[in-house]
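Notebook, p. 212. Picked up where the previous page left off. The plan for this session was modest: take the two constructs that came back from the sequencing core last week, fold each one, and keep the raw output in the notebook itself so nobody has to go hunting through shared drives later. Recording the first one now, exactly as returned: residue sequence, then the structure token string.
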Amino acid sequence: MSIENFPAVNATLNAASTVFIAAGWWFIRHERKLPHIACMVSALITSTAFLTCYLIYHFNVGSVKFTAIGAVRSIYYVILLTHVVLAIVIVPMVVLTVVPALRQRFERHRRMGRWTMPVWLYVSITGVIVYFMLYKWFPSDELKMRLRSPTAASSAGGLQS
């Protein structure tokens, strides 16, 4: 797999996390604890895989500029800003939700989970939206050229802005 595939992999991992989080929420609302646990462990795994791939990609490529103009630019940056801030916040929230569950302190787990689930869901959904806006719906001309020619991207130093 080349570095150019990482954004699509990241979006797929975010989408999978979204499905696992939503399904886990549905299962616990219907008192199905084992499927809830399976979904939430899967969400943790896919989110961790996402974070690993995200860091590898941006370590190698740097940042990718969003070059669209007009209202869509403002919308993109609002989504991106809230996504990034909440992505930072969600890490300790997940820890503070998972640890009580592992210690069988389910009341504390439930209290924290009520806050963690919607934030985690928002982060995973907006991660997919950022991917589509940046790489599919409004890619820069430079990005389109580099993604068509992987050898040009690697010889030119990646997609750094």
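Okay, moving on. Second construct, recorded in the same format:
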Amino acid sequence: MAKKSYHVIAKSDGQWSVKRTGTDRVTGKFSTQKEAEQEARNIIKRSGGGEIIVHKKDGRVSTRVTLSSNQNPPKDSKRDCVGSNPHSVKG
């Protein structure tokens, strides 16, 4: 199943709204952009991952944030250099 995307959009009345891609219905209205972004983040976390698309007041896209459903992503692992010394330089 495709991950869901939610847009954080400025409204003409000065409020911010959260709206799912492909729908006309607003999920919520908020006083600040930060509150709207936090709500979009909460919705995506509950639904198993997706993308937040934040718009500027003029409607242009400001940022995109992708959230994974994996709460514990693997840490970067350093590969061991088997049979060689990574500190030696051969010319």
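Notes on construct two before I forget. The chain has one domain: 4-67.
Flagging for discussion at group meeting.
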